[in-house]
Design brief:
This protein has 14 helices and 9 strands. It has 316 residues and is α/β, with parallel strands linked by helices. The structure holds adenosine monophosphate. The site of adenosine monophosphate has 12 residues, from helix 9 and helix 11.
Length: 316
């Protein structure tokens, strides 16, 4: 009886849901329909919702979708160069994920700087075990690195991110693997884990190895950071400029080495990093020098708070 409302993080809302919503039969149907787009997450999200409905009848449940914030992307950003019939038949397009975090962090960035959210070009680098970059122009997401599924984009803990799709066929033939086995390799055995020769998916281990001169860790770290920098560069083009680059999530908030290595590629944006600020932990902080042409920040994400706020705003 102490609980007034419940907020759920739900992975995939497809094209039908562009905002947080109070869960009713219609919303449950959409989550079910999107289960083939998010097979690992949507059924589990529904189990949580059903359990809460059973245990706390009458208490409103709110669904906050990982895809919702990215629904403002224009077609030129979300369409793939494949036959259009797949978009029409199966809604195959880019969706983007971590939307709750990208929205929270980009908004906090504007608040922290005392600037108008609707008048800023922000690139958010959400670097956690799963990782994605988004371009937020005038308060709206215009591009995001994850795709139909969270596999696209950056190199992640165990996910490959972008690869030549023909690699799948090549490995399948060479190793006698079927498509499910290939998908397991790309989702669970790749990323910095695979790239580091199965050393670790944890950046604490990779950073320690990098500092000890371990060749696997140095290669992995450099490849990871180069990919992040390339996405930043492409989103500068997407927005025709950038005011603020923001790092967040487990790695983005806690790994000064990663931030430094990424920013080494960003001289063309006039980025200059204050290494003393870069080594502070656990606070919202500008890590660029005052004369840096582009501001670089660390903003700790808080998806739980964002979900709670969305929930309150809908049930009040
Ligand atoms: P998240 O998915 O946002 O919870 O991020 C988890 C990841 O953050 C872990 O897999 C680590 O790679 C990374 N991480 C957490 N703490 C640190 C740290 N102190 N230094 C470097 N990486 C960290």
């Amino acid at each position: 009886k102490e609980v007034d409302a419940i907020g759920h993080r739900v992975l995939h809302g497809g094209m039908k849901i562009t905002n947080s919503v109070i869960i009713d039969d219609e919303v449950i149907k959409v989550i079910e329909e999107c289960a083939d787009l998010g097979p690992l997450h949507n059924p589990a999200n529904l189990m949580g919702i059903n359990a809460c409905m059973k245990l706390m009848p009458g208490v409103p449940n709110v669904a906050v979708f990982d895809t919702a914030f990215h629904q403002t992307m224009p077609p030129k950003a979300y369409m793939y160069g494949i036959p259009k019939e797949y978009y029409e038949k199966y809604a195959i397009r880019k969706y983007g994920f971590h939307g709750t975090s990208h929205k929270f962090v980009s908004k906090r960035t504007a608040e922290f700087l005392g600037k108008d959210y609707n008048d800023l070009k922000i690139i958010v680098c959400h670097l956690g075990n799963g990782a994605s970059v988004s371009a937020v122009k005038n308060g709206k997401c215009v591009d995001s690195s994850m795709g139909l599924t969270p596999l696209e984009g950056l190199i992640m803990g165990t996910r490959s991110g972008d690869i030549d799709p023909a690699i799948m066929e090549f490995i399948a033939h060479k190793e006698g693997k079927n498509i499910d086995e290939i998908m397991t390799v790309l989702n669970k055995k790749s990323g910095v884990y695979g790239l580091s020769n199965n050393l670790s998916s944890d950046f604490r281990d990779l950073e320690a190895g990098y500092n000890n001169g371990d060749a696997h860790c140095i290669r992995t770290m450099n490849t990871y950071c180069y990919r992040v920098a390339k996405y930043i560069g492409s989103y500068v083009a997407a927005m025709n400029g950038v005011d603020v680059i923001c790092f967040t999530a487990g790695i983005g908030e806690n790994a000064p080495l990663v931030r430094s290595l990424v920013c080494e590629h960003l001289g063309f944006l006039g980025v200059s990093i204050d290494e003393e600020a870069n080594h502070k932990r656990g606070e919202e902080i500008a890590i660029s020098t005052p004369d840096s042409k582009t501001t670089v920040m660390v903003i700790p994400t808080n998806e739980e708070l964002a979900i709670a706020r969305e929930t309150v705003s809908l049930v009040k």
